[in-house]
Amino acid sequence: MAKTFHIITFGCQMNERDSETLAGMLEAEGFVKTEDKNAADVVILNTCSVRENADKKFFGVLGQLKHPKEAEPSKTVCVCGCMMQQQHVIDTLKAKYPWVDLVFGTHNVSEFPKLLKGVRETNSKVVEVWEDGRAIAEGLPAAREYPFKAYVNIMYGCNNFCTYCIVPYTRGRERSRRPEDILAEVRDLASSGCKEITLLGQNVNSYGKVKHGEGSYCYLEEPGGLAGEGVDFAKLLRMVDEVPGIERIRFMTSHPKDLSDDLIAALRDCKHLCHAFHLPVQSGSDRILKKMNRHYDREKYFERVEKLREAVPDIALSTDIIVGFPGETEEDFLDTMDLVRRVRYDSAFTFLYSVRRGTPAAAMEEQVPEAVKHERFNRLIDLVHSIWEEKAADYQDKVLPVLIEGFSKTDASMLTGKTESGKTVDLPGDPGLIGQIVPVRITKAQTFSCYGELVK
Ligand code: 5AD
Ligand code: SF4
Prior knowledge:
By secondary structure, the protein is an alpha/beta fold.
């Protein structure tokens, strides 16, 4: 009987994409996916470090695997992802979870089949984590989650060192993939029927710009190819826009400091770019933005938003906001509230500041008390939701293209899909529509999702 595997993914789209590669590599070795983590021959936990909650969840789930592992010692328990790039996590694993078989990091995902084989054949434990990224591994298999929408990495790592953020330490320096390799992947996806792609990078606006990092790699240093033509993110988008069959292009994440006029022009011109933009602001206070090392102030942010809306009037804007960064006063927080009121986001991801060991902000004095953080967080959520509620009314009775993605989470007899802006729409319909983009009339617009009907 075929051996089985189960992957549990924590965190962001980067991790989801890495898990698709891990699944692809396992399938290439003859493993079959199972939904039962306790019964699987190989279990992988792909971890996230961005906030403390993710750490806690990981250790909780890992603990649940102890008994299945003891009951079936031939089972292989693997842990990987951002947390493994931190020495204190490795130390905790060695001390408290010695039954874990394989530990690897974000930079050696491509080595996984070799590492797994070693562990299973010799029945040994392996910890192999690289400190920084080497040459980007191309051509790895991927078992994609959906046939009709896909994530495509365009770059890895981050050089920005926002003072609260662990990502530059866990994902290493910025490395851009070759435009040729990205385009080949997109064409391949299109030819297999994929309709929507999301280009992924920690800071997509610096795609193709950053040259060499210590021990790092950049296609810009290769002779020949498209590298010589200086393909930046705006140019890359225009190239991807020309790939026949791809009907929707999304991307994330954009750093406001690098959001260029060229990118705004590409958004205006490209036929398949979704009119949706994720532009994390993090705080509305100039003082806090400076302490966060974000390299823009609120005026510059407003100016970029205005320019985006001028070029693409129906653009849906979303953002990330951190509440309770060290030293945040009531006045700073009110600046954030004011910014949210002025921008009127279509959607916002709000986070309580979480101390990340080894980052500059962790060592800052004036950590905000938990109770104050929560109180501000609740006020911000109320504001964000009231704006969504008002904005939802704009959807009422509109006819919009919706990509049907599957069955509704709340009512399995209904289909569910997404508008170009990213709004969820539930509707009755034939499951044969899954994977298609169809016109839908919004019959009931609500704050978090809408109901609709197919327009025949
Ligand atoms: N605490 C809270 N939120 C954080 N983020 C990143 N680091 C932290 C942290 N230490 C948020 C930022 C980022 C999003 C992916 O996660 O808002 O944009
Ligand atoms: Fe973290 Fe800032 Fe890099 Fe985003 S841009 S990954 S928030 S350091």
